[in-house]
Amino acid sequence: MAEPGRETTEDAPAADRPASKTTSQGIGSWVGMLVDVGLPWIAFTMVYGFSDHNLKLALIVALSAAGVVALFRLVRRKPIASVIAGFIGVGISAWTANKTGQAQDAFLPGILLNAGYGLLYFVTIVTRYPLFGLLYGVITQTWLAWRQDADLFRGLNRVTIVFAAQVAIRLSVMVPLYLAHNVNALGIAKIALGLPFYALTLWVAYKVLRGSMPPEKWDEVKDTFAHMLRGTQPEKKREEEKA
């Protein structure tokens, strides 16, 4: 029980809570979804490797794993949007590999998707409308006002560069393995450059953004950054809409 006159962390307004807790919840939410999305690829890689390269069996197991994950989240009444997206992704990959009969083609849609993200990051950085700045404007409904704030612009631009670097590293590993038809290495790289690498990227992006602006500015941005990671809307905006 809290002492009279003392405000506990739980009782404090969301904007006054420590940045690490709010942001870690956002990162934790993403990590949980990435685990669910990554499980089918772990299943694919293991089954393909231990079944003497039985492509159809590996694809069936991967699709089944994606379905089980979606069902598990549905039963627990957890958000399944990311799992459905992952299931669709696995389905497209399975269709591609089954159509060509080449196991490495299961990774082709993902490679092309990363190439698309890389191009998007590059264009937004070069034009000085970094993607994470645009997302920040949409989430906060301040649109392009962040471009008038030098600290905020610098931070959001650097975060976009961090994610662009992530995509570049992923492609630099995956493309040569794909061209070499090294399916086992592709599977391992897919897993390693999925959840673990993405979690590292989120951590680096958080540190870069926080280090790009003074403490008083960070206090204004921290909650919005966490909501960007979760894909939700800040409480302040929701309260304003109810008023």
TrEMBL record:
Residue ranges of the region described as Disordered: 1-24
Parts of the chain that traverse the membrane: 27-51, 57-75, 80-98, 118-139, 159-179, 185-206
UniProtKB keywords: Membrane, Transmembrane, Transmembrane helix
Keyword Transferase: no
KW Zinc (keyword) present: no
Cleaved signal peptide residues: none
Entries under InterPro entries matching the protein: UCP010219 (IPR016566)
Name of the molecule in the record: DUF3159 domain-containing protein
Organism: Kribbella shirazensis
Source lineage: Bacteria, Bacillati, Actinomycetota, Actinomycetes, Propionibacteriales
